[in-house]
């Protein structure tokens, strides 16, 4: 939102409040009220920057602070505060990368037709010296603001591919390994070439690797072009958290997406809420009609699993089936898959 002729910051702040208040009003979808909030970062020209890039970056930083302060509010850019916050977290993240405090957990995905393990998703974890293990939701936003996500994400791809190569050598590799990639990484010029280099380094057939992106990439032309190059390389592309972003069906048609991952918010209240059930069912039907595979995430109950199976969803992932696990445990699971009685083998593996 651009306000012209702002004479004092107070008037910008009032507009911010009016926007957050009106966004807070419930939205009725298929008979059920839904609530959303807006977090707003405000910058003033020319005090906070002279170029649009600088202003946008600082507005973005202020928005993250609005989220930190509890969301649903408008916050002014504050140079001293923001520099401090991002510099400390950036240097901590940078140190974490140098000291090898990151690791990958793996969460299995199972075929709904026959229960076979069809893939693993690599999920980043940060083993901090002081605060224990931290989940990516905690630190990836800061890494995105500082740009460090490019380095951290580079480490993730390298580590995941190295692990896949080890499993291949042991003859236990899953049919695919999914890796999450941030839109910032895709925007970085060399991303597709970097992926190709890593695949070659570890001798991996590209179709074993699935790159998970979110709908936000479609808002960026450079990232969109990178998607096409990745698809040309032969890696699979999965659209993560489907249904939470733009969810434009047109994008599904325009881009070479192989897999649609239904966001877990649609499963949360299945089978209690008919609207969510209808939406999940529609996403499955639509994705199939477009020739895409469908993975459901966040399966927490037997009912949800049955629901998905009946609707011919292809595969599922969630706490009900298996938690994200450290590499050794994932290796045991893959090993057990090869033996005649997996349950017995798992028991023996402890
Ligand atoms: P995501 O890719 O949608 O990953 C699924 C998240 O849901 C994971 O959280 C997983 O632990 C969690 N989850 C799995 N099953 C269930 C379930 O049954 N119930 C519930 N409530 N949650 C479940 P995690 O590992 O904390 O990751 C959060 C997000 O962080 C990921 O969402 C992904 O967007 C991002 N992320 C994770 N690893 C990376 C990475 O290496 N690079 C980038 N750029 N982002 C990553
Ligand atoms: Mg994911
Ligand atoms: Mg997801």
What would you note in describing this structure?
The structure is a single chain. The N and C termini lie far apart (57 Å). This protein has helices at residues 9-24, 52-68, 79-98, 136-146, 149-169, 183-187, 191-201, 221-233, 249-254, 265-268, 274-289, 302-310, 327-338, 342-349, and strands at 27-29, 32-34, 40-42, 74-76, 102-111, 117-128, 132-134, 177-180, 209-213, 236-242, 259-262, 293-297, 315-317. The longest helix has 21 residues, at 149-169. With 350 residues, it is an alpha/beta fold. The strands form 3 sheets. Strands 5-6-8-9-10-11-12-13 form an 8-stranded mixed beta barrel, surrounded by 4 helices. A two-stranded antiparallel sheet has the order 1-2. It has a two-stranded parallel ribbon with strand order 3-4. The model has no long low-confidence stretch (mean pLDDT 90). Helix content is 48%, strand content 19%. Helix 7 (191-201) packs parallel to helix 8 (221-233). The chain is globular. Ligand C2E binds next to strand 6, helix 4, helix 5 and strand 10.
What tags apply to this protein structure?
350 residues; alpha/beta; eight-stranded mixed β-barrel; two-stranded antiparallel ribbon; 19% strand; binds ligand C2E; binds magnesium ion
